[in-house]
Amino acid sequence: MQTSVQWLENVAFEAQSESGHKVIMDGSAEYGGENRGPRPMELILMGLGGCASFDIVTILKKSRQDVTDVLCQLKADRADTIPAVFTKIHLHFVVTGHDVKEKQVAKAVELSAEKYCSASKMLSDGGVVITHDFEIIPA
Question: What Pfam families does the database record attribute to this sequence (predicted)?
Fold first, then answer.
């Protein structure tokens, strides 16, 4: 996997993925930015949510659950010192569907956290405490 990050101006950068997608990253005005895109650490958190959500959706579909929506809400704490790494991250999954089984959602969350989500594994191996929970909403 490869990517490139090109400096645009001030503290704005454009990242391009190997698959050709582009993302603008920018800092806050405090650091000379214009808030034109997410911060790099926000993208890491978004990546974790995307990785885990991908797992949840695919696992639930394979277990024949009639899922109509999955929302992953993440909250993170960061160290007060530089580098301001993530110290804790909590993922809350809101799964909507028809007759979705709690046991199947719990299993999907566990499998994502412990086996499939590369982003979660990388962050937890780096010392980040990652927790999960979920709720099911009937469609």
Answer: OsmC (PF02566)
Per-residue pLDDT reduced to its tens digit, 16-72 = 999 999 999 999 999 999 999 999 999 999 999 999 999 999 999 999 999 999 999
The side-by-side arrangement of strands in the sheet containing 129-138 is 66-78, 86-98, 129-138
Q: What is the distance between the alpha carbons of residues 37 and 99, in angstroms, rounded to a whole number?
A: 39
**Cβ proximity of 95 and 137 under 8 Å:** yes
Quote the tokens at residue 139: 């469609």
The two most distant CA atoms of the chain are separated, in Å, by 51
27: amino acid identity, one letter: G
CA atoms within 13 A on the CB side of 50: 6
Helix axes 102-111, 40-62, angle to 10 degrees: 130
Using an 8 Å Cβ cutoff, are 46 and 38 in contact?
yes
Domains of the chain: 1-38 (2.20.25), 40-138 (3.30.300.20)
pTM: 0.94
